[in-house]
Write a structure and sequence with these properties.
The chain is α+β, with helices and mostly antiparallel strands. The chain contains seven helices and 16 strands. α5 (219-230) links the parallel β11 and β12. The longest helix has 15 residues, at 277-291. The structure holds pyridoxal-5'-phosphate (PLP).
């Protein structure tokens, strides 16, 4: 599975610090903290039918990440919202769009790691692209990575930061194995998530997902859990081993980029699919999007 270049993105405009630039001119400084240390936080957000899905949830997570990283002069949610809407309108983008909002610690006065070299406040980048949900019609094959997901002892996964190297190394293992993505374990060997999504399994009509100890507590993950609770579908957070995933009735991943995606194979073990509760949850998820309950109209 590899995303293809979409010609509709030939002439998109990208927001960088209060201005829109043609994609070919959209550049950040070599002194920016993202270049110097991956020192930024980000959100992936989706647009459906003139509505920005879960905008407030994403902006609140962005603010919490920035606060945890002790960023200074962080733009407020109103400013970021206005910048997102301006970018979407300027690109005439109203549906089928993915937005990557990145907030960097900003430009440094000289190269170096020390945040005290940042004396100009944060930089905000809004990259909106035409991009359908990438996993939607796919049957995903996964392997287990040798790279562990971050523990809060090292780097808390509750910060949605730009230091993605461990996920990238896991993705390289998946690429080399010719599969779609890699499962990452925690330090005790329990399943945490994949290199880019949260993961769920179904067994005997009960939905299970790992505790959000090592994984990002994804917004889609949270919505799926809420959908289950509202519809009397049993949902349990638990330490789950690979063995339990190999023997599940269904396995799926969740994320803004790919919504809910069906997993058919893990480490060359085919999932012995029984029942189709995943389909019911997918329908409920689509209904939630259509209901616009959490969406911001523009
Ligand atoms: C490592 C990781 N896990 C899970 C997710 C899914 O999170 P969400 O549902 O909030 O998009 C993401 C999304 O960026 C991610 O980077």
């Amino acid at each position: 599975m590899i995303q293809k270049y979409d010609k509709r993105n030939d002439n998109i405009k990208v927001w960088i610090d209060n201005k829109l630039y043609h994609r070919n001119e959209a550049k950040i400084s070599v002194f920016d903290s993202l270049v110097q240390g991956g020192d930024g936080v980000w959100e992936g957000i989706r647009v459906y039918d003139r509505h920005i899905f879960c905008l407030d949830k994403h902006l609140n997570r962005l603010q919490e990440s920035a606060r945890s990283m002790d960023f200074k002069n962080v733009p407020n949610n109103k400013y970021i919202k206005d910048a997102i809407i301006c970018t979407l309108k300027e690109n005439s983008m109203y549906d089928d769009v993915h937005i990557r909002v990145t907030l960097s610690r900003g430009v440094k006065i000289t190269s170096g790691m020390n945040p005290e070299l940042n004396q100009m406040g944060c930089s905000l980048i809004i990259l909106a692209e035409w991009k359908p949900p990438i996993y939607k019609s796919l049957e995903l094959k996964l392997i287990t990575s040798n790279i562990r997901r971050n523990s809060p002892l090292c780097l808390d996964s509750k910060i949605h930061h730009n230091n993605l190297i461990n996920n990238i190394l896991a993705k390289i293992e998946a690429n080399n194995a010719n599969v779609d993505d890699a499962i990452m374990l925690d330090f005790d060997g329990f399943v945490s998530e994949t290199n880019s999504t949260n993961i769920f399994m179904i067994k005997n009509s009960i939905i299970y997902t790992p505790f959000a100890k090592y994984c990002l507590p994804g917004i889609t993950r949270g919505l799926v859990m809420d959908i289950c609770k509202l519809n009397n579908i049993s949902i349990v957070e638990k330490d789950l081993s690979l063995t339990e995933f190999y023997n599940a009735d269904q396995v799926f991943t969740t994320g803004t980029m790919g919504e809910l995606a069906n997993v058919v194979e893990i480490d060359k073990r085919k999932i012995n699919i029984r029942g189709n509760l995943l389909n019911d949850i997918r329908i409920l998820f689509s209904e939630l999007i259509l209901s616009k309950e959490f969406s911001f109209p523009f």
